[in-house]
Design a protein that fits this description.
Chain lengths: 112, 113
């Protein structure tokens, strides 16, 4: 049963605009959330994380928002750049623990 | 510093055979996890090792097994290969737990024919 869902398989955004990638989860025990970026033929690369005690975390152009009541998180990329084109995975864990539950990913294409 | 190293990068095996994949974590990282990535299921957790002990295991059949050595290097083994085992197998390491943030290797692409 998929506990982390990324309902948009793909997203296309123009360079310079905002990219918003969404993620929903069903397990209320999840307390740590991460976003990974993956290029073809490479392993996923850690991008940004957020603990359930926060509702926002920023790192440069990347901001993650967490809405615990809605069991929803989103990744904002501002401004989007062509190099951001990749597959983005949302992941979650219980007790910052030993396993990550991943969504199936959203393929982002940033066009010039 | 060196990243997570997985060998081999590509493998082709026949149904019924067994296969062993290797992972060398980042120096100092004691936790090693394995994931299977397929187009239909995405990334699915296989198991996690810390100090040579399996701490957590995903929902995979017993044909999938692993181990970790005293130097933190890890191997995973799949016996009696099935066509459905064709996937990208990813290894990730972290200092102690997931909250430290995983670093993934580039993966081993296994094709079962």
């Amino acid at each position: 049963d998929q506990q982390v869902k990324q309902n948009s398989p793909s997203l296309s955004v123009q360079e310079g605009r905002i990219s918003i990638l969404n993620c929903d989860y069903t397990n209320s025990m999840f307390d740590y959330f991460l976003w990974y970026k993956k290029y073809p033929a490479e392993g996923p690369t850690f991008l940004i994380s957020i603990s359930s005690i926060k509702d926002k975390n920023e790192d440069g152009r990347f901001t993650v928002f967490l809405n615990k009541s809605a069991k929803h998180l989103s990744l904002h990329i501002v401004p989007s750049q062509p190099g951001d084109s990749a597959v983005y995975f949302c992941a979650a864990s219980e007790n910052s623990g030993y396993a990550l539950n991943f969504g199936k990913g959203t393929s982002l294409l940033v066009t010039p | 510093k060196a990243g997570v190293t997985q060998t081999p990068r590509y493998l082709i095996k026949t149904r019924g055979q067994q296969v062993t994949l290797s992972c060398s974590p980042i120096s100092g990282h004691r936790s090693v996890s394995w994931y299977q990535q397929t187009p239909g299921q995405g990334l699915q957790f296989l198991f996690e090792y810390f100090s040579e002990t399996q701490r957590n295991k995903g929902n995979f059949p017993g044909r999938f097994s692993g181990r970790q050595f005293s130097n933190s290097r890890s191997e995973m083994n799949v016996s009696t290969l099935e066509l459905g085992d064709s996937a990208l197998y990813l290894c990730a390491s972290s200092l102690v737990v997931v909250g430290d943030g995983y670093t993934f290797g580039s993966g081993t692409r296994l094709t079962v024919v």
